[in-house]
UniProtKB/TrEMBL annotation:
The chain crosses the membrane at residues 21-44, 64-88, 109-133, 145-165, 186-207, 236-256. This is DUF2182 domain-containing protein. The keyword Transmembrane applies. The keyword Transmembrane helix applies. InterPro entries: PpoB2-like. Keywords: Membrane, Transmembrane, Transmembrane helix.
Amino acid sequence: MTSTLSSVEVSREQAVSERGFQAVSALLFISSATATVVWCNAMPAMTEMPMAWMPMCGQTWQSFAASFIGMWTVMMTAMMLPSLLPMLRRYRVALHVAGKPNVDAHTALAGTAYFAVWGLIGAMVFALSAALAQLEMTWPVLARVAPVASGAVVLAAGTLQFSAWKARQLAICRARPAPGGDAWRFGLRLGLRCAASCAGLTAILLVTGVMDLRAMAVVSAAITLERLASAGQRMARYIGVVAIGAGLLLMLRAALP
């Protein structure tokens, strides 16, 4: 009888934990998506002009960088959370099955580590983009070839969707998580693998407009589809076809007088 009651209590505790996980996840998505929309409406698309990558009057480079990295991390939270949640849920199940304590704390730590990876990527994006903006201001000719270069990046990203490298990264990102190891290391490893898997799609976002809501919605949907669809590899190739067509169209439009 004691063991039966204990099993019932454990099941009830897991159900309460799962409801809490769902509520916190929904709140995190709504808040990050709302903040992203507000920021996007308040700022120009970061690829529209070199000056968009310069500090405003009275703002230091350090505060400007911190502001961008913060915005980037919140934006990536809204974009990546739909595809991350099923993986975190499977991770939680694996922890429950293994009898690990503090499942909620492990889940929160893994999620924090995952988005820490995207924060680091945001810092690298800022440094590279600011350097390119400086070059455009020094050599205006670069600004004239930027539209063709953007189309070429989209084309290359679409081609990458058909590569064996992409297939391996996507398979690793979709793999069922194991409960072994600490949560922080698991989150970092998952973040690095998933960042590699969607590197091409992230590049598309960067060249089409970092703060463009339409570009963000399209890229987020593409990432979610290829990670969660039953035929993920096939979905990745379909996305590649669309990206190749878009890249060719962008290059053609840029080349026409």
